[in-house]
Protein backbone atom coordinates (compact mmCIF):
# COMPACT_ATOMS: atom_id res chain seq x y z
CA UNK A 1 0.00 0.00 0.00
CA UNK A 2 1.21 3.53 -0.78
CA UNK A 3 1.45 5.70 2.32
CA UNK A 4 -1.03 8.62 2.29
CA UNK A 5 1.55 11.11 3.61
CA UNK A 6 4.33 12.47 1.41
CA UNK A 7 6.67 12.66 4.42
CA UNK A 8 6.40 8.98 5.31
CA UNK A 9 8.63 7.16 6.23
CA UNK A 10 11.23 9.93 6.63
CA UNK A 11 9.15 11.69 9.28
CA UNK A 12 9.16 9.88 12.62
CA UNK A 13 5.64 10.89 13.61
CA UNK A 14 4.03 7.77 12.11
CA UNK A 15 5.37 4.23 11.75
CA UNK A 16 2.57 2.20 10.16
CA UNK A 17 1.26 4.12 7.16
CA UNK A 18 2.51 1.43 4.80
CA UNK A 19 -0.20 -0.96 6.07
CA UNK A 20 -3.76 -0.97 4.81
CA UNK A 21 -6.46 -0.71 7.48
CA UNK A 22 -6.98 -4.47 7.85
CA UNK A 23 -3.26 -5.19 8.18
CA UNK A 24 -2.84 -2.21 10.50
CA UNK A 25 -5.53 -3.47 12.88
CA UNK A 26 -4.20 -7.02 12.78
CA UNK A 27 -0.69 -5.78 13.58
CA UNK A 28 -1.84 -3.82 16.62
CA UNK A 29 -4.12 -6.57 17.88
CA UNK A 30 -1.27 -9.08 17.68
CA UNK A 31 0.66 -7.12 20.33
CA UNK A 32 -2.07 -7.61 22.94
CA UNK A 33 -2.80 -11.17 21.77
CA UNK A 34 0.79 -12.19 22.45
CA UNK A 35 0.86 -10.51 25.87
CA UNK A 36 -2.58 -11.77 26.94
CA UNK A 37 -3.11 -15.14 25.16
CA UNK A 38 -6.66 -16.42 25.33
CA UNK A 39 -8.02 -13.11 26.60
CA UNK A 40 -11.13 -11.76 24.88
CA UNK A 41 -10.24 -8.20 23.82
CA UNK A 42 -12.55 -5.69 22.16
CA UNK A 43 -11.23 -2.82 20.04
CA UNK A 44 -12.28 0.77 19.42
CA UNK A 45 -10.38 1.96 16.36
CA UNK A 46 -9.21 5.51 15.79
CA UNK A 47 -8.87 7.53 12.63
CA UNK A 48 -6.55 10.08 10.97
CA UNK A 49 -6.89 13.83 11.57
CA UNK A 50 -7.84 13.31 15.22
CA UNK A 51 -4.75 14.10 17.28
CA UNK A 52 -5.24 17.28 19.33
CA UNK A 53 -1.73 17.44 20.79
CA UNK A 54 1.57 17.60 18.92
CA UNK A 55 5.14 18.60 19.70
CA UNK A 56 6.86 20.20 16.71
CA UNK A 57 10.66 20.33 16.73
CA UNK A 58 12.61 23.32 15.44
CA UNK A 59 16.20 23.20 14.19
CA UNK A 60 18.86 25.90 14.49
CA UNK A 61 17.80 27.49 11.20
CA UNK A 62 14.19 27.82 12.34
CA UNK A 63 12.73 24.96 10.27
CA UNK A 64 9.77 23.23 11.89
CA UNK A 65 8.77 19.57 11.71
CA UNK A 66 9.34 16.18 13.34
CA UNK A 67 12.52 14.19 13.92
CA UNK A 68 13.30 11.31 11.61
CA UNK A 69 12.98 7.85 13.21
CA UNK A 70 15.69 7.12 15.80
CA UNK A 71 17.34 10.44 14.96
CA UNK A 72 17.62 14.13 15.79
CA UNK A 73 17.56 14.99 12.10
CA UNK A 74 14.62 17.30 11.47
CA UNK A 75 12.16 16.55 8.68
CA UNK A 76 10.44 19.86 7.78
CA UNK A 77 6.70 19.61 7.14
CA UNK A 78 3.96 21.97 5.96
CA UNK A 79 1.02 19.71 6.84
CA UNK A 80 0.20 16.66 8.97
CA UNK A 81 -2.53 14.11 8.29
CA UNK A 82 -2.59 12.90 11.90
CA UNK A 83 -3.67 16.11 13.67
CA UNK A 84 -7.07 17.81 13.80
CA UNK A 85 -7.75 20.28 10.95
CA UNK A 86 -7.37 23.35 13.18
CA UNK A 87 -3.82 22.29 14.03
CA UNK A 88 -3.00 21.24 10.49
CA UNK A 89 -3.95 24.71 9.22
CA UNK A 90 -1.62 26.24 11.81
CA UNK A 91 1.55 24.45 10.66
CA UNK A 92 2.55 26.91 7.91
CA UNK A 93 2.00 29.96 10.19
CA UNK A 94 4.02 28.15 12.87
CA UNK A 95 6.84 27.77 10.36
CA UNK A 96 6.97 31.56 10.05
CA UNK A 97 6.89 31.98 13.83
CA UNK A 98 9.64 29.40 14.26
CA UNK A 99 11.78 31.12 11.62
CA UNK A 100 11.44 34.40 13.50
CA UNK A 101 11.86 33.23 17.11
CA UNK A 102 13.86 29.99 16.70
CA UNK A 103 12.44 28.10 19.69
CA UNK A 104 13.68 24.58 20.38
CA UNK A 105 10.17 23.16 20.08
CA UNK A 106 6.52 24.20 19.97
CA UNK A 107 3.90 22.09 21.73
CA UNK A 108 0.37 22.65 20.41
CA UNK A 109 -2.79 21.63 22.28
CA UNK A 110 -6.32 21.94 20.95
CA UNK A 111 -8.32 22.33 24.17
CA UNK A 112 -12.10 22.61 24.35
CA UNK A 113 -11.86 26.41 24.66
CA UNK A 114 -9.12 27.04 22.10
CA UNK A 115 -5.49 26.48 21.12
CA UNK A 116 -2.55 26.67 23.50
CA UNK A 117 1.05 27.02 22.33
CA UNK A 118 3.95 26.13 24.61
CA UNK A 119 7.30 27.41 23.33
CA UNK A 120 10.57 26.05 24.70
CA UNK A 121 13.14 28.81 24.28
CA UNK A 122 16.50 29.96 25.60
CA UNK A 123 15.47 33.64 25.63
CA UNK A 124 12.28 35.60 26.05
CA UNK A 125 10.58 36.38 22.72
CA UNK A 126 9.23 39.86 21.91
CA UNK A 127 5.69 40.11 23.29
CA UNK A 128 4.57 42.08 20.23
CA UNK A 129 5.34 39.11 17.95
CA UNK A 130 3.41 36.71 20.17
CA UNK A 131 0.45 39.09 20.43
CA UNK A 132 0.27 39.61 16.68
CA UNK A 133 0.47 35.86 16.00
CA UNK A 134 -2.19 35.03 18.60
CA UNK A 135 -4.63 37.61 17.27
CA UNK A 136 -4.10 36.67 13.63
CA UNK A 137 -4.47 32.92 14.18
CA UNK A 138 -6.96 32.91 17.06
CA UNK A 139 -4.59 31.43 19.65
CA UNK A 140 -6.06 31.41 23.14
CA UNK A 141 -2.83 31.22 25.17
CA UNK A 142 0.92 31.21 24.60
CA UNK A 143 3.27 29.79 27.23
CA UNK A 144 7.02 30.35 27.09
CA UNK A 145 8.85 27.64 29.01
CA UNK A 146 6.83 27.45 32.25
CA UNK A 147 5.32 30.94 32.26
CA UNK A 148 2.20 32.28 30.57
CA UNK A 149 3.40 34.97 28.17
CA UNK A 150 0.03 35.82 26.68
CA UNK A 151 -3.55 34.81 27.43
CA UNK A 152 -6.41 36.04 25.27
CA UNK A 153 -8.81 33.78 27.11
CA UNK A 154 -8.51 30.85 29.50
CA UNK A 155 -7.67 27.36 28.37
CA UNK A 156 -10.53 25.23 29.61
CA UNK A 157 -11.66 21.61 29.35
CA UNK A 158 -15.01 19.99 29.94
CA UNK A 159 -15.05 16.68 31.75
CA UNK A 160 -18.37 14.98 32.43
CA UNK A 161 -20.37 18.25 32.28
CA UNK A 162 -17.84 20.14 34.45
CA UNK A 163 -15.63 22.91 33.06
CA UNK A 164 -12.21 23.45 34.64
CA UNK A 165 -9.29 25.79 33.97
CA UNK A 166 -6.43 23.80 32.47
CA UNK A 167 -2.93 24.53 33.82
CA UNK A 168 -0.38 25.51 31.19
CA UNK A 169 1.00 22.48 29.38
CA UNK A 170 -1.24 20.02 31.24
CA UNK A 171 -1.63 16.46 29.97
CA UNK A 172 -4.65 15.52 27.86
CA UNK A 173 -5.59 12.30 26.16
CA UNK A 174 -4.36 12.62 22.55
CA UNK A 175 -7.80 12.55 20.92
CA UNK A 176 -11.23 13.74 22.00
CA UNK A 177 -12.81 10.58 20.56
CA UNK A 178 -10.41 8.35 22.45
CA UNK A 179 -11.01 10.22 25.69
CA UNK A 180 -14.77 9.78 25.29
CA UNK A 181 -14.39 6.08 24.47
CA UNK A 182 -12.30 5.53 27.60
CA UNK A 183 -14.75 7.54 29.70
CA UNK A 184 -17.67 5.46 28.43
CA UNK A 185 -15.75 2.25 29.12
CA UNK A 186 -14.90 3.27 32.70
CA UNK A 187 -18.51 4.28 33.26
CA UNK A 188 -19.67 0.82 32.23
CA UNK A 189 -16.92 -1.03 34.15
CA UNK A 190 -17.78 0.75 37.40
CA UNK A 191 -21.57 0.68 37.74
CA UNK A 192 -21.35 1.62 41.43
CA UNK A 193 -18.87 2.04 44.26
CA UNK A 194 -18.68 3.01 47.92
CA UNK A 195 -15.43 4.98 47.71
CA UNK A 196 -12.97 5.36 44.84
CA UNK A 197 -9.20 5.93 44.84
CA UNK A 198 -7.89 7.42 41.60
CA UNK A 199 -4.16 7.39 40.85
CA UNK A 200 -2.44 9.57 38.22
CA UNK A 201 -5.67 11.57 37.98
CA UNK A 202 -4.19 14.47 35.99
CA UNK A 203 -6.54 17.43 35.74
CA UNK A 204 -9.62 15.27 36.30
CA UNK A 205 -10.24 13.64 32.93
CA UNK A 206 -12.15 10.84 34.66
CA UNK A 207 -12.45 12.24 38.19
CA UNK A 208 -15.75 14.01 37.59
CA UNK A 209 -17.36 10.90 36.15
CA UNK A 210 -16.14 8.87 39.12
CA UNK A 211 -17.40 11.50 41.58
CA UNK A 212 -20.93 10.91 40.30
CA UNK A 213 -20.63 7.33 41.55
CA UNK A 214 -18.85 7.79 44.91
CA UNK A 215 -16.49 10.10 46.83
CA UNK A 216 -13.08 10.14 45.13
CA UNK A 217 -9.60 10.30 46.64
CA UNK A 218 -7.51 11.57 43.71
CA UNK A 219 -3.70 11.46 43.61
CA UNK A 220 -1.46 13.22 41.10
CA UNK A 221 2.19 14.28 41.06
CA UNK A 222 1.61 17.72 39.52
CA UNK A 223 0.78 20.47 42.01
CA UNK A 224 -0.84 22.49 39.22
CA UNK A 225 -3.11 19.62 38.24
CA UNK A 226 -4.15 19.09 41.85
CA UNK A 227 -4.89 22.80 42.22
CA UNK A 228 -7.32 22.55 39.29
CA UNK A 229 -9.31 19.96 41.27
CA UNK A 230 -9.38 21.78 44.58
CA UNK A 231 -12.89 22.52 45.82
CA UNK A 232 -14.61 20.20 43.38
CA UNK A 233 -17.58 18.37 44.87
CA UNK A 234 -16.88 14.82 46.11
CA UNK A 235 -13.23 14.97 44.96
CA UNK A 236 -10.38 15.15 47.48
CA UNK A 237 -7.18 15.72 45.52
CA UNK A 238 -3.64 15.39 46.85
CA UNK A 239 -0.22 15.99 45.29
CA UNK A 240 1.85 12.83 45.56
CA UNK A 241 4.81 11.27 43.76
CA UNK A 242 3.03 7.93 43.49
CA UNK A 243 5.94 6.22 41.78
CA UNK A 244 8.32 6.97 44.65
CA UNK A 245 5.76 7.03 47.45
CA UNK A 246 2.83 4.76 46.56
CA UNK A 247 -0.36 5.19 48.57
CA UNK A 248 -0.57 2.43 51.17
CA UNK A 249 -3.69 0.48 52.08
CA UNK A 250 -4.08 2.17 55.45
CA UNK A 251 -4.34 5.55 53.69
CA UNK A 252 -7.43 4.55 51.71
CA UNK A 253 -9.81 3.01 54.24
CA UNK A 254 -13.19 2.07 52.85
CA UNK A 255 -12.05 2.25 49.22
CA UNK A 256 -13.51 -0.62 47.20
CA UNK A 257 -12.62 0.58 43.69
CA UNK A 258 -9.32 1.92 42.32
CA UNK A 259 -8.67 3.59 38.97
CA UNK A 260 -5.14 3.98 37.62
CA UNK A 261 -4.02 5.93 34.55
CA UNK A 262 -0.22 5.71 34.77
CA UNK A 263 2.43 7.01 32.36
CA UNK A 264 4.29 4.67 30.01
CA UNK A 265 6.47 3.22 32.76
CA UNK A 266 3.37 1.89 34.48
CA UNK A 267 2.28 1.72 38.11
CA UNK A 268 4.31 -1.14 39.58
CA UNK A 269 4.82 0.31 43.09
CA UNK A 270 1.17 1.36 43.40
CA UNK A 271 -0.05 -2.03 42.17
CA UNK A 272 2.04 -3.72 44.87
CA UNK A 273 0.39 -1.47 47.47
CA UNK A 274 -3.09 -2.16 46.07
CA UNK A 275 -2.38 -5.88 46.17
CA UNK A 276 -2.23 -5.57 49.98
CA UNK A 277 -5.38 -3.44 50.20
CA UNK A 278 -9.07 -4.31 50.53
CA UNK A 279 -9.85 -2.92 47.08
CA UNK A 280 -12.08 -5.35 45.20
CA UNK A 281 -12.18 -3.82 41.71
CA UNK A 282 -9.46 -2.08 39.69
CA UNK A 283 -9.66 -0.29 36.35
CA UNK A 284 -6.30 0.27 34.68
CA UNK A 285 -5.89 2.66 31.74
CA UNK A 286 -2.52 2.00 30.13
CA UNK A 287 -0.74 3.44 27.09
CA UNK A 288 1.98 0.75 27.13
CA UNK A 289 0.94 -2.91 26.71
CA UNK A 290 4.22 -4.28 28.08
CA UNK A 291 4.08 -2.38 31.39
CA UNK A 292 0.36 -3.18 31.62
CA UNK A 293 1.24 -6.88 31.41
CA UNK A 294 3.83 -6.47 34.15
CA UNK A 295 1.43 -4.59 36.44
CA UNK A 296 -1.40 -7.07 35.87
CA UNK A 297 0.98 -9.89 36.85
CA UNK A 298 1.48 -8.16 40.21
CA UNK A 299 -2.27 -7.93 40.75
CA UNK A 300 -3.05 -11.43 39.47
CA UNK A 301 -0.50 -12.89 41.91
CA UNK A 302 -2.51 -11.15 44.66
CA UNK A 303 -5.79 -12.73 43.57
CA UNK A 304 -7.12 -10.37 40.89
CA UNK A 305 -8.43 -11.66 37.58
CA UNK A 306 -9.04 -9.87 34.28
CA UNK A 307 -12.76 -9.48 33.66
CA UNK A 308 -12.68 -7.27 30.58
CA UNK A 309 -10.14 -5.65 28.28
CA UNK A 310 -10.84 -2.88 25.78
CA UNK A 311 -8.19 -1.46 23.45
CA UNK A 312 -8.63 2.15 22.28
CA UNK A 313 -6.56 3.20 19.26
CA UNK A 314 -5.78 6.84 20.01
CA UNK A 315 -2.42 6.84 18.23
CA UNK A 316 -3.39 6.12 14.64
CA UNK A 317 -0.52 5.00 12.36
CA UNK A 318 1.80 4.46 15.33
CA UNK A 319 2.81 1.45 17.43
CA UNK A 320 1.13 2.90 20.55
CA UNK A 321 -2.12 1.45 21.85
CA UNK A 322 -4.22 2.46 24.84
CA UNK A 323 -5.85 -0.34 26.85
CA UNK A 324 -8.55 -0.23 29.52
CA UNK A 325 -8.60 -3.29 31.75
CA UNK A 326 -11.05 -4.31 34.47
CA UNK A 327 -9.75 -6.57 37.24
CA UNK A 328 -11.67 -8.06 40.17
CA UNK A 329 -10.62 -10.14 43.14
CA UNK A 330 -11.45 -13.79 42.67
Give the secondary structure arrangement, pairings included:
Elements: H1 21-35, E1 41-44, E2 53-58, E3 64-67, E4 74-76, H2 85-88, H3 91-101, E5 105-111, E6 114-120, H4 127-137, E7 139-144, E8 147-151, E9 156-159, E10 162-165, H5 176-189, E11 196-199, H6 207-211, E12 216-220, H7 223-229, E13 235-239, E14 257-260, H8 268-275, E15 281-286, H9 289-301, E16 304-312, E17 322-329
Parallel strand pairs: 1-16, 6-7, 11-12, 11-14, 12-13, 14-15
Antiparallel strand pairs: 2-3, 2-5, 3-4, 5-6, 7-8, 9-10, 15-17, 16-17
Q: Any idea of the CATH class of the largest domain?
A: Alpha Beta
C-alpha-based Rg, rounded: 21 Å
Oligomer: single chain
Shape: globular
Q: What is the residue-averaged pLDDT?
A: 97
- Terminal CA distance reads 46 Å
The main β sheet shows up as:
8 strands, mixed
Instruction: Output the number of helix runs.
Output: 9
- Level of helix content? 25-40%
- Number of beta strands: 17
Name of the CATH architecture of the largest domain:
3-Layer(aba) Sandwich
Return the structural class.
Answer: alpha/beta
State the fourth-level CATH superfamily of the largest domain: Vaccinia Virus protein VP39
The low-confidence parts are none
For the biggest β-sheet, the strand order reads 1-16-17-15-14-11-12-13
Hey, roughly how much beta strand do the residues contain? Answer: 25-35%
The number of domains? 2
Q: What name does the CATH topology of the largest domain carry?
A: Rossmann fold
Amino acid sequence: MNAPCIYYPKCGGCQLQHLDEAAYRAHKAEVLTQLFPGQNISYIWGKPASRRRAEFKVDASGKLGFFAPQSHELVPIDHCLAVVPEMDELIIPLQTLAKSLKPEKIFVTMADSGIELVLTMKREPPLAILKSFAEKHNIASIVVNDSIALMRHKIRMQFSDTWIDMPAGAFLQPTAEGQQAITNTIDRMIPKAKKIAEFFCGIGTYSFLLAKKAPVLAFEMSDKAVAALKGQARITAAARDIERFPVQHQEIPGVDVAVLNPPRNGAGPQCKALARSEVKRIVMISCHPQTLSRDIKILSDAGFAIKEMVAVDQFHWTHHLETVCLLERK
